[in-house]
Amino acid sequence: MKFFDMFRFKPEAQSRPRAESPGGIQFSGLDDPALLEFIRNGGAGSVEMLRNMAAFRSLTLICNGIGMLPTNIYKFGADKEIAKDHPVHKLLRLRPNPWQTPMEFKGQMEMSVQQDGSAYARIIRAGNRPIHLIPLEFSKVDAKLGSDWRMKYTVQTETGGQIGLDQSEILHLRELSPDGVCGLSRRKLSQGVIELARSAETAARNVFKKGVMAGGAIEIDGELSDGAFTRMQGSLATDYAGAENANKWMILEEGAKANKFTSSAKDAQQIENRNHQIEEIARLYGVPRPLLMMDDTSWGSGIEQLAIYFVQFTLAPRFTAWEQALSRSLLSDSEQERFYFKFNERALMRGTLKDQAEFFAKALGAGGHQPWMGVDEVRDLSELPESGDPKHAQVAEPMSQRKATNEPQTTT
Asked: What percent of the chain has pLDDT over 70?
């Protein structure tokens, strides 16, 4: 470069055309946890999804419903005896691992299934006896079907390494699966729905943050004097503002007219759009709208039937999936012929005390019904101790079919 070239005029470099990136998910910084989930999963993460209250409520209902119910291992046979001596019984009823309760463990696993389609827990064994169930983070497990028709799992460790595990070492829960290996992810399938719901929430928030919330305007044909303006401004603030001045008549000066603002169809449509997004999320998880605090029906028989619907069509398939996955992963081939797992879903179907009393009365044979329960069984379901009477451990005859006797009743 020559010396005089420094003073010569240079044309500005032509700006190169560039493609503007479309609006999408925003992150607060490089330390935002949502950014890490976006990099791992290629979409909105579970934390971002849980910020939607309808999705959070749906997950709470399903995960708590799964977690709160007792899960027992039974022996096959007419006695329906709980296998309390089996090591798996302690894992499912007392302590699955050193830091979690059974409800916390099952709730965490089910939340992963509901969001990502699969949930993994490593089975720690002492010999052939399972002693711990360690939940694994979904994004750190890669599941594949091997050439020997057995599942193979690659797990990323905390130090950055990888370990390979056989299907006998992993408890794998799946949602509906197109390939039988990994379940469908609701988080990915509903990304558009969640984005739209978040946009509707942002629009509603901006209305309260930036919109004009005045109830009306005072119209004056001419110019208002300074004194009249000051008096009117003070009167509006002191005499007509607040709940105690509701429906109070105003006194206006100098021919002023009060014009009340009316809600537009646009405002009503905004509320309708938000309700529609809640309905879409309810449909995604199979949760009836009233359980999401939507006022569709009155409280009574209607809500009771919807609760039964929720148990039968949303939770019951998940109960079966859990029972079969536990049997596949925690029992040997010979044990699967002697033991089975069962959720006590009757705990969700008990109803009111009045309904329970009618059910137990019929179960004991009231009204000529054929009895199918003993007194001690009824007391056990009511969390009461056994009566101590040997007759109460047996199923009695129907009350209307008892043999008549001429012997007087004994009194004590």
From this structure: 75
